[in-house]
Amino acid sequence: MIQVREVTKRYGAKTVVDHLSFTAQPGQVTGFLGPNGAGKSTTMRMIVGLDRPTSGDVLVNGKPYASSKAPLHEIGVLLEAKAVHPGRTAVSHLLAMARTHGIPRSRVDEVLALAGLSEVAHKRVGAFSLGMGQRLGIAAALLGDPAVVMLDEPVNGLDPEGVLWVRTLLSGLAAEGRTVMLSSHLMSEVSLIADHLVIVGRGKLLADTTVADFVTSEGVRVVTAAPDALRTVIAAPGVTVTSTGAEELFVTGTSAREIGLAAATRGIPLFELTPQNASLEEAFMDLTRDAVEYEAAR
Ligand SMILES: Nc1ncnc2c1ncn2[C@@H]1O[C@H](COP(=O)(O)OP(=O)(O)OP(=O)(O)O)[C@@H](O)[C@H]1O
């Protein structure tokens, strides 16, 4: 289990992670999503003790990672842009890691096979494609047979077959009762792989939900002769109305049926009344739009 508790990280005056709390549970794949610069990598670095929170704390399997005696067994990590010496072969890279952690040679062969790298085990890493590099990073993360697996952008650079491979691998690891967490800035990728979604923007938690619940956050598109009158009629706690055109409204928090009935009782003409099922990608973009604009405007 990974527990992030009220974590804030500041670099100088800049708050990169802002009172962030969430839990990645065993037996589940947690997708950690957010636009570029949302603070995902920083959070992951704090989880493994490479960065220290300004306030709040992080627990891995109930304790701070730094106090773990066999860290590779506790948590396996793929962090972005992890440096592997380009002159090394895949097998020599993994063997060096294994030796320093008392892991047997047989496990190196196992993870190479698991990552589909047995054939290229003796090739220099410098000659690897981006996808092969990602596979090697994942193999390294699994070396210690860890209870928690945390991967930063693991499908970055992978072709569709590679994405499918990651999905099968990670759901298998979760089914074994491990805690699996992966980050991405692409909803389309994460929705294929994760059950649980933690979405951040500007370092803040925007949503902690399931993929299924996230898509049901739909709205209703209404085209009417009297948008202002309709707004007044449907106003209620939990109902939000956004003007999307001269005669157009986008309404959330109520149903097309309720809007239609309310309009009929007041004699408000409706030209269109369309429930909209936002795609996952659209819902994600709506949720994180402010965070992205902030990034672009900096
Ligand atoms: N050591 C540092 N000093 C100052 N600012 C930093 C430092 N590390 C990260 N940042 C800033 O923190 C913000 C969040 O970065 P982070 O890499 O955690 O985001 P991210 O969500 O992982 O994004 P990406 O998907 O682009 O990797 C960025 O604006 C980045 O410039």
From TrEMBL:
<dbReference type="Pfam" id="PF00005">
    <property type="entry name" value="ABC_tran"/>
</dbReference>
<comment type="similarity">
    <text>Belongs to the ABC transporter superfamily.</text>
</comment>
<dbReference type="InterPro" id="IPR027417">
    <property type="entry name" value="P-loop_NTPase"/>
</dbReference>
<dbReference type="InterPro" id="IPR003439">
    <property type="entry name" value="ABC_transporter-like_ATP-bd"/>
</dbReference>
<keyword id="KW-0547">Nucleotide-binding</keyword>
<keyword id="KW-0813">Transport</keyword>
<dbReference type="InterPro" id="IPR003593">
    <property type="entry name" value="AAA+_ATPase"/>
</dbReference>
<keyword id="KW-0067">ATP-binding</keyword>
<feature type="domain" description="ABC transporter">
    <location>
        <begin position="2"/>
        <end position="227"/>
    </location>
</feature>
<protein>
    <submittedName>
        <fullName>ABC transporter ATP-binding protein</fullName>
    </submittedName>
</protein>
<dbReference type="GO" id="GO:0005524">
    <property type="term" value="F:ATP binding"/>
</dbReference>
